[in-house]
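Lab channel / #folding
Pinned by the channel admin:
"Please post every new chain as: sequence first, then the structure tokens as a reply. Keep commentary short and put observations after the output so the thread stays searchable."

First post following the new format, from NK:
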Amino acid sequence: MRVIAGEFRSRRLKSIPGDATRPTPDRLRETLFNILAPRIEGAIFLDAYAGTGAVGIEALSRGARHAFFLEKNRAALEAIRENLASLKLLARATVVAGPVLLTIPRHTADIVFLDPPYDLEREYAAALELLSEAPPQLTVVQHSIRLDLPDEKGPLRRTRVVKQGDNALSFYAYRGRGTCVSLLSAGEPAEGWPVP
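Reply from TO:
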């Protein structure tokens, strides 16, 4: 696993074996950040179910001001801390140990990324429910293409779905501010979305 682009481009990241996390493939991560490019600079990013921290570290590499890493798996927490330390990113990061459903309400971010591991798929609905109570400007959910997610959850409205192989990214915008663009191709600027 490596950082795709930005300040730490091509730097290797420690990974962990097993299915305790849901890794975001390099190609899917690249697509995600091509879409987020216009809004990542200076943003506060939250990587829920962070695994090795690859998504949050990618956000920091591309100019996010700060990233929260929420994770309960002990091996994953160790990997996150090692990866952040190796890149000298500890000052721009907060690693939060514990179940995401307990820790996510305590942290505010402009962009939230959710990808519960395979054995916690039941938490998608609960996590979206919690986020709808204090909505970020944008929530991105990585999930199986076979998993049906709601088009709306409170003030969060799904504006786009991107599919790659067995994975999908669902983008939820807070409909209380600005205009949401529903059909953007990968790599196009997200003009019209709420600005962080």
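NK: Helices lie at 26-40, 54-61, 74-86, 100-103, 123-133.
TO: also worth noting, Residues 177-196 have pLDDT under 50 and may be disordered.
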